[in-house]
Amino acid sequence: MNFSFNARNVVVALVVLGLSLLPVYSALSGNIFILTLFTRIVIFALAAASLNLIMGYGGMMSFGHAAYLGIGGYAVGILAFEGIGSGFIQWPVAVAASALYGLVIGALSLRTRGVYFIMITLAFAQMAFYIASGLSRYGGDDGLTIYKRSDFGGLINLSNRVQFYYLCLGCLFGGIYLIWRIVNSRFGMVVQGIRSNEQRMQAIGYHANRYRLVCFVISGMICGLAGALLANNTDFISPAGMYWTRSGELMVMVVFGGMGSLFGPVIGTIVFLLLEEVLSQFTEYWALIMGPLLLLIVLFARGGIMGLLGRMSRD
Amino acid sequence: MLVLVEQSLNGLQFGLLLFLLAAGLTLVFGIMDFVNLAHGSLYMMGAYFAATFVAWTGSFVFGIVLALGATLLLGIVLEYVALRHLYGRDHLDQVLATFGLILFFNDAVRLIWGPAGLALPLPAWLTVPVQIMPGVSYPAYRLSIIAVALAVAAMLYVVVMRTRIGMLIRAGASNREMIGALGINIKLLFTLVFGLGAALAGLAGLMQAPILTVQIGMGENILILAFVIIVIGGIGSIRGAFLAAIFVGMIDTLGRAFLPDLLRKVLSSAAASTAAPALSSMLIYLLMAIVLVVRPEGLFPAAKR
User: Fold this and answer.
1) Beta-carbon neighbour count of residue A118 at 10 Å?
2) Residue in A closest to B297 by C-alpha
3) What was the ipTM of the complex prediction?
4) Which of A85, A256, B74, B285 has fewest C-beta within 10 Å?
């Protein structure tokens, strides 16, 4: 990767540096709130990055990604509830359960295209939501409190704010690295080729849906990990966290930042969640502003923030 | 037996309501190629308008007519101000923009009417039970929902299949550019169709209002059901939407009513009471999955372009 000093790369470098040094700032200024806020942001950025893998590179507009957040979270919550506190078990289960869900849902949904795909992923995620609401042993609608965060022996202490933040950040950077490797691999090239011209790829001899499905499952696994992190962050898991508006928010984060760019979702998540935070300080009715703002962004700012920066650096 | 009749009627009534919602969605999608997530918000607004106007005027019928007009107007304004700029854009853009509208409407309702739900009380003449069969009586209001929805469905059929404007709508669905080139004011047509869809959503919302409470977010779950119906019925097909809506309404209602008892015969009662709610809310999604496997285009796909 040849690095050049354009606006895009400078912003990405600043974001990476800023996220890495945030705990230092938090410790120096004594501002703990900013650390908890950014822990949340980093976790959602991982989820958004996973969605970007299928939306931006795979051309699959999934409107049901919040389901994985819920599945990952419930894997941690349910295992903790049943007395299995080890993260070495909880987290792989979270990822595996997400993979299984992605495999089944993906195999069914990928039979369709376009709007159908959006509607179907949405409907299946809503089904997952209802199933979670029906888990009466695990709190049903009210959700489940997680009394003890995942235990990784003496390796890392998740109850320590700074350690947990760096774990989340490590997962985010690891996730982005993985996505970068995938996108630039032969497999990733095929997936992107299918996005641009499915018929041609079929004609060359690629089984389009198999590639799509694998990509879909990988994305779900990464998002399931984000779900496990999120459950540890909030010490709580409930169906509300996988409601369909959450899926919509994830899509917004991706599009805000710029679909199909590696760091776009990270920047989109930072902007979206900070905006939400700032607006909700002004008024209880923050969505009154956020909603029309979203409409305006869709109407006038194609390509999101990364697209904007890209255009700036070309001029 | 008695319960079966009653629940079947409930299912039919729910299905018809779903049809009103799905018909608007599928019309707008079929003609303008536009996905409107905010359709559920129009459903909600219909219910809020009805609750407000009925309380203001003191008359149920008059209030409802006003509410219908208000939802129609809201739909037209919405189309004119924002949504017409999204025609021809990527579906993702449309989904995100209308998602923004949902956020807006939910908070606007919270600001204007407060977070607590409203009730829409029925007039006395609609609360009487009607004897439909010897020994079986059914609430008059639910019967009138069935009657109104069937009438609207029939009207919709006549308008779309038998009138000039319906012809234009169908022509618009099959080739937009062509009817524009033939000198039809396609923008006006689009606005009209969108207003019609909004009014149908509003009608569904205000008819449902007296049965459930009028509350924020009431349009969201039912919107997803409407999506399921469109997927099952085939996008753009009103006939498909009608049949799929009744099918889904029946399965959902009957599943919720009888599945717990059926499960109790197979499983222990504790396991059944845990599994039943989850399973009955899954039923329609399972149905959708089966339809997808068998016919990915839906049961009654609109004519191929």
Assistant:
1) 25
2) A112
3) 0.87
4) A85
